[in-house]
Amino acid sequence: MDQRSLRGVYIVANDKVGENAIALMSSLRLYDPDIPVFLIPFNDDHQQVASRLADLYDVQLFPDLAFLDALTEKIGDIFPRDFLALPNKMRKLAAWFGPLDEFLYIDTDILFFTPVSDTLAYLDQADFIWCDYHYKRGLKDVFSDVVPQQNIFDDEALKDVFNSGLWGSRKSALSLEQLYNVLKDCAAHHEYFDFSSGCTDQPIMNYLVLKTLPRRLNIVKAKPGEPGSWGGSSHFERRGDVLFDGDRPLRYLHWAGTPMCTGGPYRTLWEDYRYRNDPDGKAVFEARPSLRPSKLQQMKQRVKSGLKTLLSKA
Asked: What is the pLDDT, as a whole number, of residue 313?
């Protein structure tokens, strides 16, 4: 890394997911107290979360909101609504055009258990990084069978599919012209993508990265023994403030579609991080009635978790 390069983190949030954003930032600041973090607003309803994150964790607001609005409008013009119903879901793409030279993008349904700077260090080896085992699931939630059938990407490239909730890159790796050209290509080929599970940005993100960024690195392949991270995995063990997979501490935990609610997986850990530096928020939380998932919801989640565990071992 150039000593003058600025490394940091982007998150996307609005007031609706403010609680998750606070929990995420609590974990980031515990292990990396000084790293710059910028909030990309999901929409105009972000004043409350922006204020809380600034007060509690020194999170800065993305400095060019006019660019953000223009980017969202342009994406809305490129994609028909039956393809991309909510262009705001692609606002994470603004990370390539913000103030950070090298960055990690992190979804708010994540907790980190290691210094973010350790993960960012892998950008010394690549222009795009991620850290997950999504490739073991094949192309599900990313591409349809049309992509391998038509050789849109070769087999090696298709082993680089990733979850779009945690990834990193550098500002110089992608131009705005490249971005718009690839998005137009996406919009012309709805048949390439697997939206069957409700994923929206993830298929498009994967297409963009595989088309434009050949210097890619999946940390789980670069570091043998890297533990998993999915919040639907029931075997992780809590030791202090960290989850372990056997004797291996997790880098991070990503709920990724797993219910984040009272009684849900690893909820007590999430609550501990959420209220670690916010006693006023904890008092409000404890005054609320308990909301537990129904037995049917719990059963559905157990079935879903079992299926994903089987697929990951296949």
From this structure: 44
